[in-house]
Amino acid sequence: MSASRLARVFAAGQRKALIPFITGGDPSPLHTVALMHALVGGGADVIELGMPFSDPMADGPTIQLACERALAAGTTISRILEIVADFRRGNGLTPVVLMGYLNPIEHRGAETFATQAKAAGVDGVLIVDLAIEEAPEFAPAFKRAGLDLIFLIAPTSTPQRIAAIAAEASGYLYYVSLKGVTGSAALDVDSVATKLAEIRAITTLPIAVGFGIRDATTAAAVGRIADGVVVGSALVSEVEKHAGTPEVLPALLRDKLKAMRTALDAPIPSPGSQS
User: Fold this and answer.
1) Which structural domain, as residue segments, surrounds residue 100?
2) Residues 6 or more apart whose Cβ sits within 8 Å of residue 105
3) In angstroms, rounded to a whole number, what is the distance separating the alpha carbons of residues 43 and 36?
């Protein structure tokens, strides 16, 4: 059996994974596929595509507003799956992870959703509010469909909880670098490094870090300690600024991501070297 697209991204010796997030359907479902291709052009290794939801409680104002714009434009779960299928017609290599909340999936039925997502070309699903205690009720449907189920780990997660999460997770783990919602500002790289060492003592799953990564500098700093770097609000804020002129967005997002890709790929300065 061949390795999944996600497994190939995180294979030993590969570059640090750059994982951009955008909200599907923002500013309109008509533009999302072009934005996804632009992200690949900017160096994305995995795309996290947000499924807009009316009550995105883990997200800050930037992504909350993106959800509102997408929903107002008529974006549904079915439309998100159509977007992924359309993207797959031009790209069969870049993994796509759907990120969203449990309610719309539960409403559709986990088995139906997982089967349809796999058929559309989805590789994994990250359900923000799926507690590990509830995972046995939903995880089997995703595993049967061949989808990776990705979980969040928080700075406050105990070793016992990390072990329970790692036992259910596949693909990669998403470490939330901050206590707060998406778009928060402060990022303490040293504390992130300490937590990643704790997680790696428990599991061999790759670890991607998100929240607080805004630019090339923060991406490079986190990339030195993580297997992947997730950037979301910094991209979604560009969509917000240019929602009225969406034709400029592909180039803007591509260039913003290229700067992060270049920083991630740059050699790590040796001790004592001068910049």
Assistant:
1) 5-265
2) 77, 113, 125, 127, 138
3) 11
How many distinct structural domains can be found in the chain? 1
Low-confidence ranges of the chain (pLDDT < 50): 1, 181-184, 275
Cβ distance 59 to 96 under 8 Å? no
Q: Domain for residue 163, yes or no?
A: yes
Please choose, from the candidates 259, 229, 227, the residue with its C-alpha nearest in 3D space to the C-alpha of residue 18: 229
Tokens representing 102 are 């449990």
Residue with tokens 């008529």: 74
In a domain, 271, yes or no: no
200: CATH: 3.20.20.70
Q: Is 221 left (phi over 0), alpha (psi -120 to 50) or beta?
A: alpha
| 40 HSE (CA, 13 A, CB side) | 15
Residues serving a catalytic function are 48, 59
